[in-house]
C-alpha cells in the first residue's frame, strides 16, 4: 500500500504533461512583444533565444522592363534665338514669271523748264566762182536759213542766241591754190590751205566749235593775194558754208 500514493502522483504528472502539449504537436512561447514558434521536437521546458542582428543587404536586382509611354506633355516656352548662320550659296535663277498688270499712273510731275526750243542754223552755197580776197565770201545759194541769222548780202552769220555753235565749210578748188580762213569778230579762228593739182579738182574743208555772244559775227574769206583764190563752184561742184547752235547759254 505504500507505493500507491507514488503511483498516483506519477499518473497525475503524466496527465498534466499531456494537457500541456499543443493539440497539433507545436508549442509557442509568448513574450512581451513577439510570439516565437517552438521548434518541432523541443522539450517541454524550451525557451526562445535572444533575436539576432539584421542581415546584410542583398545584391541589386536586374533592371525592370520599360514602362509604357506617358501622355504628351504641354508645349514649352520658345527658346532663345540662336546665332546667325553663314550665308548660303546663291541659288539657281528661277524661270521668268509672267508679265504683271500695268501699274497705277504716278502723280503729275513738277513743271519743267520752258518747252521753247532755241533754234539758230544756216547752210548756204556758192553760186559763182568770182570771189574777192580779204573780204567775206558771199554764199548766195540758200539751203537753209529759216531764222534769217545769215545775211546773204554781206556773207556773214549774226549771232542772236548766245551759246555754243558748230561751223563747217567745204570748198571746191580749181585752177588755183586756195587759202581760206574762218573769222569771228575780225579775228581769224581757222586756216585752210589746198594746193591745186593741174588738170584736177580738189576739195578743202574745215570745222570748228565756237562760243558766241549775242551780236558776234562769223564768216569765211580768202586771204592773201589773188594767186590763192581758187574757190570754185558750178552746176556739178559746190562750195558750202554751214553753222548751227548746239547749246544755248542758260545764264
From TrEMBL:
Keyword Transcription regulation: no
Domain called C1q: residue spans: 115-251
Record localization: Secreted
Alphabetical UniProt keywords: Collagen, Secreted, Signal
Compositionally biased region (Basic and acidic residues): 62-77
Domain of life: Eukaryota
Annotated signal peptide: 1-25
Ranges for region Disordered: 47-108
InterPro entries, sorted: C1q_dom (IPR001073), Collagen (IPR008160), Collagen/C1q_domain (IPR050392), Tumour_necrosis_fac-like_dom (IPR008983)
CC terms in the record's Gene Ontology section: collagen trimer; extracellular region
Any one Pfam family match given in the protein's UniProt record, by short name: Collagen
Name of protein: C1q domain-containing protein
Organism for this UniProt entry: Balaenoptera physalus (Fin whale)
Amino acid at each position: 500500500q505504500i507505493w500507491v500514493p507514488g503511483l498516483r502522483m506519477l499518473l497525475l504528472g503524466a496527465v498534466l504533461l499531456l494537457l500541456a502539449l499543443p493539440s497539433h504537436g507545436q508549442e509557442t512561447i509568448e513574450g512581451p512583444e513577439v510570439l516565437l514558434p517552438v521548434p518541432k521536437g523541443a522539450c517541454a521546458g524550451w525557451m526562445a533565444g535572444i533575436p539576432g542582428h539584421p542581415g546584410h543587404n542583398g545584391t541589386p536586382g536586374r533592371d525592370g522592363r520599360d514602362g509604357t509611354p506617358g501622355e504628351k506633355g504641354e508645349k514649352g516656352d520658345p527658346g532663345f534665338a540662336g546665332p546667325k548662320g553663314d550665308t548660303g550659296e546663291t541659288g539657281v535663277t528661277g524661270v521668268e514669271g509672267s508679265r504683271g498688270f500695268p501699274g497705277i499712273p504716278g502723280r503729275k510731275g513738277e513743271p519743267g523748264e520752258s518747252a521753247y526750243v532755241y533754234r539758230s542754223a544756216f547752210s548756204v552755197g556758192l553760186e559763182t566762182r568770182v570771189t574777192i580776197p580779204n573780204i567775206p565770201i558771199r554764199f548766195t545759194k540758200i539751203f537753209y536759213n529759216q531764222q534769217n541769222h545769215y545775211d546773204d548780202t554781206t556773207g556773214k552769220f549774226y549771232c542772236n542766241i548766245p551759246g555754243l555753235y558748230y561751223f563747217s565749210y567745204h570748198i571746191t578748188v580749181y585752177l588755183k591754190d586756195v587759202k581760206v580762213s574762218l573769222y569771228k569778230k575780225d579775228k581769224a579762228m581757222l586756216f585752210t590751205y589746198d594746193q591745186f593739182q593741174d588738170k584736177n579738182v580738189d576739195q578743202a574743208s574745215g570745222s570748228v566749235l565756237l562760243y558766241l555772244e549775242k551780236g558776234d559775227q562769223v564768216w569765211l574769206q580768202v586771204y592773201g593775194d589773188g594767186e590763192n583764190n581758187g574757190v570754185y563752184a558750178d552746176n556739178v561742184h559746190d562750195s558750202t558754208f554751214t553753222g548751227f547752235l548746239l547749246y544755248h547759254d542758260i545764264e
